[in-house]
């Protein structure tokens, strides 16, 4: 994303230069899906598709323009409340609301231009990047010295309490704390992280089904409730605290569907831990097996896949150079993530997309991602 362009757009709209440009990356999750709201483990990385915000302090209300989505509702950050708008400025307003609450003082309003390369709703978390970019900008103009970990927490508060999406903290932590060339093993309970280098002969590829996510909010909330029910039956705080032995010993008391949901979460947590060792040891056979097991578990036990995601995963598994592939993100559409031998990247993409199209009649898309640093100021 050429920064010059966002400055030009800013000048055109507001008739002056921005005071600050902040950027936050999208993220891709290698493994550990639907585990974060169970206090479990995840394994994301920040990717070189970012979202930038150019901004200056405004005397009037906060005005927001997005190159992708156009104008959104104006707001006064001093008195916005959850539910004030359904337009995309709820992410900026919500971030301002969350920061004001933390620092117990008023923030200035901003004039804002957003420009982004992050596909929206493809499972790479454009919303967390938008929150983090707003966070970075307000942090700068108010000299708040909040660190990125705090901004990630505030992003989650914005998403949960202001936007009304009851998501875990993975997306915000990945966008905030990403590190060049590394994936992050994250314990979503303690927020402890371990960075693990992704071997330089592997490409991280996002294979987009181009199927819009459907049903996500209701299905997501239903899965969350089922996980809470399972934890109650098992007598643990969160499913993070259970293992398969405990689950199996309780099996006959559990509704069958609740058993399968819990099984996914428990086995996925273990896969995430195993994946860390596999990645460290460059054990490509184990990486492939764990990613495939993750997909199958999400498909059969958690039931958040769909025909397009299954077709994409299967096409990827069969393609040259594929080390591992699985659906990524909440499910019901969106994308698969694949780890691919770099020297076979082009044949991998060609084969995966052509088999996918034959299977579904849809034209998918594949993009190779570089793993980058987390949210930051681009320039003051
Ligand atoms: P994702 O998986 O991409 O995070 P979400 O539904 O959580 O999907 O968030 C997408 C929403 O974030 C969009 O509907 C829009 O409100 C906001 N958003 C994302 N990218 C942009 C952008 N470039 N400009 C304005 N708003 C954006
Ligand atoms: Mg999102």
Write structural notes for this entry.
The chain has 380 residues and is of the alpha+beta class. It has two domains: 3-198 and 372-379, Ribosomal Protein S5, domain 2, CATH 3.30.230; 202-369, 2-Layer Sandwich (Alpha-Beta Plaits), CATH 3.30.70.890. 43% of the residues lie in helices and 23% in strands. It has eleven helices and 13 strands. The strands form three sheets. Strands 5-4-6-3-1-13 form a six-stranded mixed beta sheet, sandwiched between helices. A four-stranded antiparallel beta sheet has the order 10-11-9-12. Strands 2-7-8 form a three-stranded antiparallel beta sheet, with helices on both faces. Helix 8 (256-280) runs antiparallel to helix 9. The longest helix has 25 residues, at 256-280. The two termini are 17 Å apart. Adenosine-5'-diphosphate binds at residues 51, 66, 68-69, 88, 91, 114, 116, 120-121, 123, 125-127, 130.
